[in-house]
User: Fold these one by one.
Assistant:
Number 1:
Amino acid sequence: MEDIYNRVLDGDRRAVARLITMVENGDPAAAEPIRHLHEHTGRAHIVGVTGATGSGKSTLVSSLTKVLRGWEMSVGIIAVDPTSPFSGGAILGDRIRMQDLTTDPGVFIRSMGTRGALGGISVATNDAVNILDAFGEDIVIVETVGAGQVEVDIVKLAHTSVVVTMPGGGDEIQAIKSGIMEIGDIFVVNKADRADAGRTYAEITMMLELSDRKDGHLPPVIRTVATTGEGVEDLALAILDHRRFLEAEGLLEQKARERIIAEMLEIINRRVGDTVVKALREDPEMIDLMRRLVDTREIDPHSGARMVIRHLLKKG
Ligand SMILES: Nc1nc2c(ncn2[C@@H]2O[C@H](COP(=O)(O)OP(=O)(O)OP(=O)(O)O)[C@@H](O)[C@H]2O)c(=O)[nH]1
Ligand SMILES: [Mg+2]
């Protein structure tokens, strides 16, 4: 157990799978190996792939991986399935779609549930990305179903965010509402074999031209047919281009820093939440506070919250 991190660093795939299972289960024994691996992270390029259910993300990730493998890059894939807390049906579907990759030693595929973490990219997903990074993958791809906050969260995790849309269905309008236009670094109109793909392409291009990007990067819009691989090489090139852009502007470093800080804040959030819940249940002073808050209504929720925080900091 002590040397699971050495095995990860030595390229042992079973150790990688085992450690990811440990972080997924919240196993405290994962803390030590994660700590050791941290100094070996920061090399992989992290690509987030998000978009509506059924837009073809998994098929696209699969063809993209084949292109990257052709360029001798190693690829780690994490498919985050927010709908299912455990390995469910959708994951089985992903396995089938990505099946022809599983025999390639240069590809590591893993599905993870978000365990109801309010749609956010969970701490476990972050850990899994770090493990694959330390393992030595050149590219780590994280696939998530776009469901509002998740798309925004993925930016904190990814260096390059790819937003996958498909013709029709009014997805594009939905996308603007959820602020997705501001967060995507590359837009894909997948299923470009469908008749109405041209219109979707034109709409997205126009919206991007109108939107005001803070980083000065006008995202490319790429048409793909994930099932045949058409356009997928352009997507791979756009990802490598975006990395060069980030490097040239000094943004890669900045993103990496923001990501580590976001990760720590999320862990703090989680820990503080657990500590508060535990205190409210078990600490006599807190139980009394709850009584005054709920039963006698002497304390309002704002004052109650302040008192809880003060109490916990004092106990520190
Ligand atoms: N015609 C056409 N069908 C496609 C294309 N890409 C994917 N599909 C099909 O679309 C369906 C959904 O593809 P997936 O790759 O599972 O989509 P997804 O976005 O990963 O789906 P979820 O993970 O469930 O959100 C499958 O039946 C694919 O074969 C494409 O470019 N053209
Ligand atoms: Mg999928």
Number 2:
Amino acid sequence: MTAPDLTESSARKALLRLEGILNKIFGNDLNPLYYLGALGFCFFWVLVVSGVYLYGFYRTGIELSYPSVEYITNEQWYLGGVMRSLHRYAADALVVVMVLHLLREFILGRYRGARWFSWVTGIPLIWLIYTSGINGYWMPWDKLAQYATVATMEWLDWLPIFSGPLSQSFISQEVLNDRFFSLISFSHATIPLFVLFFLWIHILRISYPVVNPRRKLVVGVLLAMLVLALVKPALSQGPADMGIEPRNIGIDWFYLFIYPLLDVWSAGQVWALVIGISLLLGVLPWLPSRFKQIPVAEVNLKYCSGCGFCVADCPYEAVVMKPRSDGMHFTEEAVVVPDRCVSCGICAGSCPSSTPFRSEANYVSGIEMPSLPISGLRAAMMNDLAKLTGDARVMVFGCDNAADIGKLRSAGVAVMSLPCTAMLPPSFIEYALREHQVDGVFITGCRESDCYHRMGGLWTEQRLAAKREPRLRGRTEHGRIRQFWASSADFRGLTQELESFRATLRDQAE
Ligand code: HEM
Ligand code: SF4
Ligand code: SF4
């Protein structure tokens, strides 16, 4: 079996087109598709806050649960009712962003190599969130709860782990006891703790994880849910009665879609489906694919001063500082953790020794990508620059995951595509502008707020604005540098921007 390679597939193109439209509506900073994981956290916290409030008034017991939820909903509609609706809608929204997040990472191919860790730890989150959500639907003990409880027990009965049929325990009102309500109430409060624990593990290998969406996005999302809560409040569907089979009930398709499926398929088939999907997701990162990760970063101790810039810039916690092992007078040295490295090259761009202003032809940097050594980049750049002719000669640096800059190459334009734009040490820009008389340097890469390797676009902007090490030196003529962020769906805009930059350079030359 082969993992589908969607790198430049129609799914990826469609995703980029959709994100482009949302960027126009909301701006890159507030594009919800760039903040799906962070929105997941946001909805989780809304669930916690509203859930704590609801627990304050919820009563556990066959005769108590339904009236207590009715009290919250109707007597306290202005607060309790709103909290109940927020709880319901945040739960639905959590599933929506989780599924979109999974699909997006899949379409972008961000589940292979070192990223397997975040991918695989996402799978228990799906199970936990669904378990908690379904459990939540039992709590009001209305007709929907009755339907969902009985259907779940019948489904669980298929598993050979319970001694007697569980569904038998729920067939009559008499055998249902208060212990059952204490149990569901306890589990509904406990499972979210496991969700939180797995969320922590999920982002353990990610530096600077984005767990909070932009404030405006949070406000917008909360307002939308509040309006929904007032316009269409979450209501119960009449008290449960085990003597009467519930009919014509409305179900929440985000959580309970599995139950109508149980009407058509056998319990065993539905188990096979959900376990099968989970196993498939679990093995996906290791299925053979055309994706080839270039060799991971390597430290060359002789040129490492232990400055820690690479540790600060690595987006995947893949470089750590350790006590010096080679007797040099520095206290620490950089060490790459190969299992965590996604081969983005950002560390090579952050190392002060990755400068082209060095005399040896085959010099080495403190940290390098073995397949793309910094001295090789310099040689390739010099070779390309030497061939440029005409006026407004430009060196374009870009990213393998963004717009294909190879198509920009012309007599006056040289191009160099890197695994990530942030692999470019700013000193290369100075070098190209000063030593080799190129008229301008054009920097491009993934769309703003959407770096494929995370952080690369931001680090590049900060280095060029002299706000982050290694800085672009103040003497560099900023008028001869242009940044423009573009995905493969923005190629026309990229070409126009490059032409406008070259026109400016021509004007400056006159
Ligand atoms: C509601 C549950 C989930 C939440 C709240 C969540 C949240 C997050 C967050 C905050 C990040 C870091 C994003 C960043 O800073 O770039 C992340 C990364 C990631 N998530 Fe999730 N996640 C959830 C479920 C899942 C699931 C179900 C999967 C797939 C099975 C998944 C796959 C991934 C992957 C592969 C990454 C790493 C992306 C990269 O390396 O750039 N997540 N998640
Ligand atoms: S290439 Fe460097 S920056 Fe990128 S993940 Fe590996 S160690 Fe980190
Ligand atoms: S950036 Fe370079 S010099 Fe600094 S710690 Fe990393 S490898 Fe060593």
